[in-house]
Amino acid sequence: MKSRFPFTSFPNGWFRVAYSDELHRGQIKPLHYLGRDLVIFRAENGTPHVLDAHCSHLGAHLGYGGKVKGEVIECPFHGWCFNGNGQCVDVPYANKIPSKAQIPVWSVREVNGVIMVYYHAQGEAPTWEIPELPEYTSKEWTPFRLGHRWKIRTHIQEVIENAVDYTHLPFVHIKWDTVKSEPLEVDGSVLKWRASREGGEFLGSAILFAKPEETLSDITCYGLGCKLIRVHAKVRINVNVLLMFLMTPIDHEYLDVHAVFSIKKIFNPIVTSAVARNIIKQLRREIQQDIPILENKVYPIVPNLCDGDAPIAQYRRWVRQFYSEQPITNK
What we know:
The protein has five helices and 18 strands. By secondary structure, the chain is an alpha+beta fold.
């Protein structure tokens, strides 16, 4: 990756490592994200915790054979117990716990049915949060559902830049017409913009036997790990869709990309379900069209932009805040 990108593969921010319904009380799972072996467990009180995976005693992986005992995780090798802060609180055969019996711990948030960890190159605490989404608890919307996941050989910054670069849409995605986009809005770690188009094919519109008069998409990025797209289309009736893209670097080469979606319930559950299936189908197709370009392109430090291009330079300025060491730029 270092030969393709002039910055670290691991920018600072919040990243998905699991879903809430994947981790029950007393359950442990091994993980590998952000170039690290990790272990996630849910204590008996319901709180999720993420630690570096290996016991500071003799290096056993806590995710393979470890046990949750109340609010602590027990090492499968010698029974050392660590709490959610990574501190050893019990060595069953010793009178004194070694002072260095500590495992690095990660800041964790459970929000919108997603368990996320905060990464910072210097180990600093979070300075911003992922907000709760009103659609997640609304009875007017379908339960959040994983539409698909991809393992892509690219950098997380490139995926968001691909979304900002709306001028590629009619060339890469055949059924997209010309898209108009409003200027980017920057608010600290949050980036927003709106895109619109007339006609074309809207996700799910084929089920309703009509093409939309207009489709509006409100895009919000919370750092580089979470991108929301709220889509509104008039297709005989109003159709509203929420797409949440969750992106986590696996290592220096690959990115784990998840697409979660929800639909505002339509008058008929059968129609709602049919539109949902069509959304998944079209979403998979469009991401698959992007993958060959993302996996094989290079990153020009000084791109040769024209006056009709998307606001890529503004996006790259916003991105710099997520790197402890500033990437090489054209200033």
